[in-house]
Amino acid sequence: MSASSETQQPLALTGRVRPAARATARDYSVLAKMVRESGLLRRRYGYYWTRLVLAVAALGAVWAGIVLVGDSWWQLLLAVVLALVLAQLAFLGHDSSHRQVFRSRAWNDWTARILANALVGLSHAWWTAKHDAHHAAPNQEGQDPDISPGVIAFTPAVVASRHGWRRWLAHRQGWYFFPLLALEGLHLHVASVRRVVGRGPVPHRGVEVPVLLARLALYLVALGLLLPPTVAAAFLAVQLAVFGILLGGAFAPNHKGMPIVPATTDVDFLRRQVLMSRNIRGGPVVDFFMGGLNRQVEHHLFPSMPRPNLKRVQPLVREYCSHLSVTYTEVGFFTSYRIVVQFLNDVPGRARDPFTCPLAASLGR
């Protein structure tokens, strides 16, 4: 029986679930056993091969359209479409990096490496190192690179360390969060190049450096040869801006505004992943534009689970968290961004609501 046929019926908890007062690190093992028995960790080859073929075909069609349209401002519409296609390829690369696509580790790694470096123009090594660190300790100070000090301050300590106009901006950073997303596409490419040509270790550097640099150079050369300078510059700006908004907009609402964990706090795996993650409600449109990352709780609990199965396992995870009295957060699409803006505008307010260990709290400690 196929994995899809096994999961047509709603999943339900089986056996006796221990109350939250006796919660231990074993809670995740119990959930993981139920999920393995459900068959939802099996590969979905038909789904992923279809997505891969369609995405690559769409990429070719966009470039064919660029050639056919020629010297026209209609090219900006194609720039938006290209950004959308590249975002979908990036999501597929993300899934492959998490080994969701193939059983073989090598097949997953090389598929992700080709998608990232050759097609999207991002370093697979840079992205994997950064993203793995995020999954290991989401929203934990000093551990999660996604909340490390930068243009945006995510913790009260970082806001307090800023002075003058930088502190003034930090208290209003929620309002320029969305304009910054438009620069995220450029930032991703720059960070990728800096990583692969830097001094630090880079797995398969001999592959990543020439492929990544050749892809970026060929892209710029192609625009220069096919389009007039002004149209080419506008095309590049629109494509990078939309690409940044699509990728940043898919990742940001999943954790921003959720609890920030102090560097010295130890939280068991299940609560670390659930309490620091937020799901985004929505139908097929939200699933498409967020690359399945709108089911962030399930993705963090089972990062190697194929994307289409996250929806199927969601009822089981939600019910299990309810039995354990572990808060399971899910909000609407627009509500999630409102939460992000409010959080970023009042980061110092988080100091008035310090994070407490959920296990210790449940035991009355």
Measured distance between first and last alpha carbons: 48 Å
Main beta-sheet annotation? 2 strands, parallel
Mean pLDDT: 89
Number of domains: 1
Element string (H = helix, E = strand): HHHHHHHHHHHHEHHHEHH
- CA-based gyration radius: 22 Å
Please report which band the strand proportion falls in: under 5%, 5-15%, 15-25%, 25-35%, 35-45% or over 45%.
Answer: under 5%
Strand order across the largest sheet: 1-2
Oligomeric grouping of the chains: single chain
Find the count of extended strands (DSSP E, 2+ residues): 2
> How many helices?
17
Helix content: 55-70%
Low-confidence segments, ≥5 residues, pLDDT <50?
A: 1-22
Class computed from helices, strands and strand pairing: mainly alpha
What gross morphology would you assign? globular
What are the SSEs and their pairings?
Layout: H1 3-6, H2 26-38, H3 45-69, H4 75-97, H5 105-120, H6 124-136, H7 156-160, H8 165-170, H9 177-197, H10 205-226, H11 229-251, H12 269-275, E1 279-280, H13 284-289, H14 296-301, H15 307-324, E2 330-331, H16 333-345, H17 358-362
Task: Name a few traits of the molecule.
365 residues, mainly alpha, 17 helices, disordered N terminus
